[in-house]
Write a structure and sequence with these properties.
Order of helices and strands: HEEHHHHHEEHEEEEEEEEHHEEHEE
Radius of gyration: 24 Å
Helix content: 25-40%
CATH architecture of one domain: Roll
CATH class of one domain: Alpha Beta
Shape: globular
Structural class: alpha+beta
Largest sheet: 9 strands, mixed
CATH superfamily of one domain: ApbE-like domains
Distance between the termini: 88 Å
């Protein structure tokens, strides 16, 4: 006797299929670690999550890949992009309509420039190009002529030259050329963390070429962050992060060239037009990747007598600064957290709170 029809068998098979799928979903446990790597902004961006199953993690990674690639195209100061087209318009005395993210970058950058007494200055893009640091790989060439550097410094382009005219942004200074290399990675990392949280991700780390932000934990244990040795191949120190913190390091080893025995790096001092001197690396821990990114750049430029006052002005209390002689200065708040990975540890000075 036939117990059920062909149609009935199909309904039963479908029902069993649904039950099987539900059982699989119920049994699928979060993998310990999901990770991906992106190549954008001229650097490597590493993203990792903890406690997320593979499919949702991959969907989040795909979203971040699309976002980072879009930001790279939109914010590039030299390739054809909304930003480079705006820069050309400023040079011609015309206005330009910017995307919402670019407008926010302009607003944030102006505030940071004011807080840093102009040491953070994305308006000096022409100086960046003059030094050849606007290219993926700098040509083998000597430093630019001092007269050319002096001309751009004396033109004094700054964020204060920008004005809003209706829906357009204009520059009073034709020598202004915006290059957000000192803030874009931090800004993008913060937006990436926002997107991950919107997907329900509670434990993650996003690291864009030394500008990182970590949230939550790794299997209930803190994320462990390494601080690169600026003159060695390994890690100088490490610290642990649980909750939500950002770390950024600026150093003279990231993008540099040597000419006749002198090292020239990409962190330019807008006051002189030359690479900043005095420090070889600065690490900052802050509540946002943008703040850490900007502050590490500013404190790399600031001299030995200025950096603490500027750290206070920027609202950062956790700073590690290494000077050209290898001497280490750090604030008490960071000194209490760092674990030195080299033996013997470097000679260091714990300075008063900024």
């Amino acid at each position: 006797m036939r117990l059920f029809s062909f149609a009935g068998r199909r309904r039963v098979a479908a029902l069993l299929g649904c039950v099987f799928a539900l059982l699989l979903a119920a049994c699928e446990k979060p993998d310990p670690l999901q990770a991906t790597r992106l190549l954008v902004f001229g650097t490597v961006v590493d993203v990792a999550t903890w406690g997320v199953t593979p499919k949702p993690a991959q969907a989040a990674f795909d979203e971040l890949r699309t976002a980072f690639e879009s930001w790279h195209r939109e914010w590039h100061a030299w390739e054809d992009s909304p930003l480079s087209r705006a820069n050309r318009a400023f040079a011609a005395g015309a206005g330009a309509a910017l995307t919402p993210d670019l407008l926010r970058l302009v607003s944030d950058a102006r505030a940071w420039s004011q807080a840093s007494n102009g040491l953070f200055d994305p308006a000096i893009g022409r100086l960046v190009a003059l030094w050849g640091f606007n290219q993926g790989e700098r040509p083998d060439a000597p430093p630019p002529p001092p007269q050319a550097i002096a001309e751009l410094v004396n033109a004094h382009p700054s964020m204060d030259d920008l004005t809003v005219d209706g829906e357009q942004l204009r520059s009073r200074n034709p020598q202004l050329w915006l290059d957000f290399g000192g803030i874009a990675k931090g800004y993008a990392v913060d937006r990436a963390i926002e997107r991950l949280r919107a997907r329900g991700v509670q434990n993650a780390i996003v690291n864009a070429g030394g500008n990182l932000r970590a949230i939550g934990s790794k299997d209930g244990q803190p994320w462990r962050i390494g601080v690169r040795d600026p003159r060695g191949p390994g890690v100088l120190a490490s610290l642990t992060i649980t909750g939500d913190e950002s770390v950024s390091t600026s150093g003279d080893y990231e993008r540099h060239f040597e000419w006749q025995g002198v090292r020239y790096h990409h962190v330019l001092d807008p006051r002189s037009g030359y690479p900043a001197i005095g420090a070889v690396a600065v690490t900052v821990v802050a509540e946002s990747a943008e703040k850490a990114d900007v502050a590490s750049t500013v404190l790399m430029i600031a001299g030995p007598t200025e950096w603490r006052a500027l750290a206070r002005a920027l609202g950062v209390t956790q700073v590690l600064r290494i000077d050209e002689s290898g001497q280490v200065e750090l604030t008490p708040a960071l000194a209490a957290r760092l674990h030195w990975e080299v033996s013997p540890p470097p000679t260091l000075t714990v300075v008063p709170e900024p």
